Amino acid sequence: MRCIKCGHGTYRSTNTEAVELAGGCLLIIRNIPCYKCGECDEIMYTGDVVERLERLTAKAVELAQELTIVDYAKAA
Ligand SMILES: [Zn+2]
User: Fold this and answer.
1) Does 63 reside within a domain?
2) In which residue ranges of the chain is pLDDT below 70?
3) In this structure, is residue 65 part of a structural domain?
4) How many angstroms separate the Cα of 22 from the Cα of each of 5, 50, 54, 58, 62?
5) Which of 15, 17, 48, 53 could bridge 34 with an S-S bond, Cβ 3.0-4.6 Å?
6) Strand boundaries in 1-75, DSSP class E
7) Cα–Cα distance measured from residue 67 to residue 7, given in angstroms and rounded to the nearest whole number
8) Rg of the chain, C-alpha, whole Å
């Protein structure tokens, strides 16, 4: 996979995302598999990771807790 910003090669890594949900709730997802650019540090996710992140976000909205921390590797 090539960097969408600068075209440099990327390497596999993991990332943590903080998503602010409606109502001021905060969702933190750890250990998300991603590709990171070796040049500009741009983070990229594959299609199925994006899909899974959307599902996790929808689930967190249902729970509606003030702060939810999810480990991507452990979440169903
Ligand atoms: Zn780049």
Assistant:
1) yes
2) 76
3) yes
4) 30, 19, 14, 11, 11
5) 15
6) 10-20, 26-37, 43-44, 67-71
7) 36
8) 14
Ligand 1 centre distance from Cα of residue 28 (Å): 24
Number of domains in the chain: 1
Predicted local confidence at residue 76, as pLDDT: 59
How far lies 64's CA from each of 43, 50, 51, 54, in Å?
A: 27, 21, 20, 15
Instruction: To the nearest 10°, report the CA torsion of 26, 32, 38, 44.
Output: -80
Q: 11 is written with which tokens?
A: 């390497």
Residue 22's pLDDT is 80
- Distance from residue 43's CA to the centre of ligand 1 (Å): 9
Residue 14: inside a domain = yes
Containing structural domain, residue 56: 10-71
